[in-house]
């Protein structure tokens, strides 16, 4: 189906199902349950996961396949947002033109930045991209203020021309009249599920983004990108020019970032320069590595994990902790709460840092590799039950490590 | 007129003249060896042929066209493939993928954005790749991780990657370096077989005299950056000048 083989088709269908059912999956606890604060099934968070999933999927096409580590992808995210808001201001609050212009503009910027940065590789490439993004960020605050509206940020105002919108048009980003902020609620017993137009709009793009990435991974073009990472010298002596391949990957990943930026503006129609800050570019690096660079699912898992931690952990303040640990003796309770509170609430980034450190040190292949190891252990344990575990376990150890690229 | 014509090539690095008035003519379909003591300029000459180095003066013509100023990938597309002293393969990929890449490069050229085709649907390319793997006796390892191969297998894989492009000229940089005698003999047989079956011109740079004399039809002796003599293996063996410059210290 859709140019995929059987295995990939099943895989893709599972991804579609998971995406569509996210409002259920991220809302596992009842409203009155004490664990309700761990529910992540509200529109803002779900849309963020989808948007950053797109960002990371695109980043993975560059970093995961070619091995070129860019720290400057925040610039494309920012440009996507600005382009989208300008479309809202000038043309219409319908989101389609906005998203399309976001992708085009970020693609053009990626072409320029990629063309310059790809003259170098390794750490020098990373530094060049970082410098370019930082430049874009500074420009947005200074010279480009007429376009970016400086520190205030670019916003939609009632006085904007919006030449395609009639007098009665919706004054919130919409999908042919259907406002993205609109939600339907479904109550089943104690559970409350929210279905939001904006989330499903982002989710549709996330599915498309994932599909394109899957096709690229399985294509001869994807094979060439992996060849860039494996051995550029051999590539040159095999009659292949690595430059256009890496540039194409760079532009594609830049367009993904632009799409993510455009969707961000669609969910919340304002754009500020802080979206271009290098920390945002660093965040997508962390997402990709945490989930598993070079794997298909890894970046999405990484994006989901980080956004979930960010939103849920940051809500756990000291009051909540005191409730949790109230069973402890008073003095001990205060100590435990003090320690745990360093990693929650405003200190959630510390928890993220700890997780990231553990993953990089012990699971270089990210969460996907972790999952695969657990699956392997389980298989071995089952075979051990059958009685010939030792021998087949040995055989598995002798097999060369499978490359993480073909993994799902 | 040979398929490869090197005329008056000079190359110096700082004060060191690595190549001095090098002239070399390689006839089509011949097996031509370049030998010489360490520092004779063999590797420099090879790097000039593949476009990695640009000579200060002189010309290098391949198949009637100049290779000077062209990038390595352009020269490869002209029909020159190179086997390295330490095998250069795509370690992260499988053996089959390693061979598929040159197949695709041969068909599609230096760049093609085939992002929406599927590798597994390239039946013709896969067949070609599997065929060449059989030729070098590696068909049973086609799904192995290339980095996990033994050194000898890596070299055979690299050879397969070059051969599948059907080059007109194959450059081999010490193809038996660091090999045990038994493996060396297997490589010699493999090269002989390839040469007979495929009618490829080969230029071999080699230290091992056993390999040189069992393979080469013509031998060029380089010494201090300049060709001392070019002749058949029999005449080279008896040449006192060569003995003095090189073979005097080696066992023949």
Structural class of chain B: alpha/beta
Which chain pair shows the most residues in contact? A-B, 34 and 44 residues
Total number of strands of chain B: 10
CATH class of chain A: Mainly Alpha
The CATH architecture of the largest domain in chain B comes to: 3-Layer(aba) Sandwich
Write the CATH architecture name of chain A.
Orthogonal Bundle
User: Beta-strand percentage of chain B?
Assistant: 15-25%
* Helical content band of chain A: 55-70%
CATH fold-level label of chain A: ABC transporter involved in vitamin B12 uptake, BtuC
Helix content of chain B: 25-40%
Percent of residues of chain A in beta strands?
under 5%
Termini separation of chain B (Å)?
A: 32 Å
Stretches of chain B where pLDDT is under 50 for at least 5 consecutive residues are none
How many strands, what sense, and barrel or not for the largest sheet of chain B? 6 strands, mixed
As for the CATH topology of the largest domain in chain B, it is: Rossmann fold
Biggest sheet: strand arrangement of chain A: 1-6
By oligomeric state, this entry counts as heterodimer
Average pLDDT level of chain A: 89
Low-confidence stretches of chain A: 386-408
Structure description:
The complex is a heterodimer of chains A (408) and B (252). Chain A is mainly alpha-helical. Chain A has a single domain (6-294), classed as Orthogonal Bundle (ABC transporter involved in vitamin B12 uptake, BtuC), CATH 1.10.3470. Chain A has helices spanning 6-20, 22-25, 43-66, 74-90, 95-117, 122-141, 145-148, 197-218, 220-230, 232-236, 242-267, 278-291, 298-313, 318-324, 330-343, 348-362, 366-386, 389-398, and strands at 154-155, 174-175, 178-179, 183-188, 191-196, 270-271. In chain A, the strands form 3 sheets. In chain A, strands 1-6 form a two-stranded antiparallel ribbon. In chain A, strands 2-3 form a two-stranded antiparallel ribbon. In chain A, strands 4-5 form a two-stranded antiparallel ribbon. In chain A, a hairpin with a 2-residue loop joins strand 4 and strand 5 (191-196). In chain A, helix 5 crosses helix 6. Chain A is globular and about 65 Å long. With 252 residues, chain B is of the alpha/beta class. Chain B folds into 2 domains: 1-79 and 168-181 and 200-252, Rossmann fold, CATH 3.40.50.300; 87-166, no CATH class. Helices cover 37% and strands 24% of the residues of chain B. In chain B, the strands form 2 sheets. Chain B has a 6-stranded mixed sheet with strand order 6-7-8-3-9-10, with helices on both faces. In chain B, strands 2-1-4-5 form a 4-stranded antiparallel sheet, with helices on one face. In chain B, a hairpin with a 2-residue loop joins strand 9 and strand 10. The longest helix of chain B is centred in the last third of the chain and has 18 residues, at 181-198. The interface between A and B is large, with 34 and 44 residues.
């Amino acid at each position: 189906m859709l140019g995929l083989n059987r295995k990939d088709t099943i895989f893709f269908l599972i991804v579609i199902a998971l995406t569509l059912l996210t409002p259920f999956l991220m809302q596992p606890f009842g409203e009155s349950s004490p664990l309700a604060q761990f529910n992540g099934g509200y529109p803002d968070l779900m849309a963020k996961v989808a948007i950053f999933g797109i960002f990371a999927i695109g980043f993975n096409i560059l970093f995961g396949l070619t091995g070129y580590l860019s720290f400057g992808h925040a610039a494309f995210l920012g440009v996507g947002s600005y382009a989208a808001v300008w479309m809202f201001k000038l043309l219409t609050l319908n989101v389609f033109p906005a998203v399309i212009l976001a992708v085009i503009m970020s693609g053009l910027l990626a072409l320029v930045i990629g063309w310059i940065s790809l003259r170098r590789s390794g750490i020098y490439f990373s530094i060049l991209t970082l410098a370019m993004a930082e430049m874009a960020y500074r420009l947005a605050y200074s010279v480009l203020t007429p376009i970016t509206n400086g520190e205030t940020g670019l916003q939609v105002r009632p006085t904007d021309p919006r030449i395609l919108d009639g007098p009665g048009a919706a004054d919130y980003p919409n999908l042919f009249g259907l406002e993205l902020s609109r939600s339907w609620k479904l109550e089943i017993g104690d559970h409350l599920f929210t279905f939001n137009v904006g989330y499903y709009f982002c989710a549709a793009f996330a599915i498309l983004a994932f599909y394109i990435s899957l096709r690229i991974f399985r294509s001869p073009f994807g094979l060439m990108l992996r060849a860039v990472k494996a051995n550029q010298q051999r590539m040159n002596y095999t009659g292949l020019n690595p430059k256009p391949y890496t540039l194409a990957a760079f532009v594609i990943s830049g367009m993904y970032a632009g799409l993510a930026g455009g969707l961000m503006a669609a969910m919340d129609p304002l754009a500020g320069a802080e979206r271009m800050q290098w920390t945002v570019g660093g965040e997508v690096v962390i997402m990709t590595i945490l989930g598993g660079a070079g794997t298909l699912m890894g970046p999405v898992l990484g994006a989901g994990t980080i956004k979930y931690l960010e939103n849920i952990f940051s809500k756990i303040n000291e009051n909540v902790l005191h409730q949790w640990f109230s069973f402890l003796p008073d003095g001990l309770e205060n100590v435990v709460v003090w320690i745990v509170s360093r990693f929650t609430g405003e200190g959630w980034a510390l928890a993220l840092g700890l997780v990231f450190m553990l993953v990089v040190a012990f699971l270089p292949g990210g969460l996907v590799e972790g999952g695969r190891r657990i699956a392997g252990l389980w298989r071995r344990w089952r075979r051990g039950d059958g009685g010939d575990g030792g021998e087949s376990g040995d055989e598995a150890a002798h097999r060369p490590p499978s490359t993480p690229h073909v993994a799902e | 007129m040979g398929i490869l014509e090197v005329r008056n090539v000079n190359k110096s690095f700082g004060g060191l003249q690595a190549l001095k008035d090098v002239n070399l003519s390689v006839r089509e379909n011949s097996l031509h060896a370049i030998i010489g003591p360490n520092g004779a300029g063999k590797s420099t000459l090879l790097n000039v042929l593949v476009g990695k180095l640009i000579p200060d003066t002189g010309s290098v013509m391949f198949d009637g066209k100049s290779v000077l100023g062209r990038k390595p990938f352009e020269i490869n597309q002209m029909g020159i493939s190179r086997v390295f002293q330490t095998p250069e393969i795509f370690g992260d990929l499988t053996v089959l993928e390693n061979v598929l890449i040159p197949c695709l490069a041969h068909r599609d050229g230096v760049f093609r954005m085939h992002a929406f085709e599927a590798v597994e649907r390239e039946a013709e390319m896969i067949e070609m790749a599997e065929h060449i793997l059989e030729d070098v006796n590696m068909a049973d390892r086609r799904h192995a991780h290339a980095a996990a191969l033994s050194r000898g297998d890596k070299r055979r894989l690299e050879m397969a990657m070059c051969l599948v492009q059907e080059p007109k000229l194959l450059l081999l940089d010490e193809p038996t370096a660091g090999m045990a005698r038994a493996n060396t003999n297997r490589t010699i047989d493999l090269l002989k077989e390839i040469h007979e079956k495929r009618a490829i011109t080969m230029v071999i740079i080699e230290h091992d005299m056993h390999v040189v004399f069992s393979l080469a039809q013509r031998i060029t002796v380089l010494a201090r950056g300049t060709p001392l003599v070019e002749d058949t293996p029999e005449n080279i063996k008896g040449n006192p000048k060569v003995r003095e410059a090189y073979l005097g210290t080696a066992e023949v």
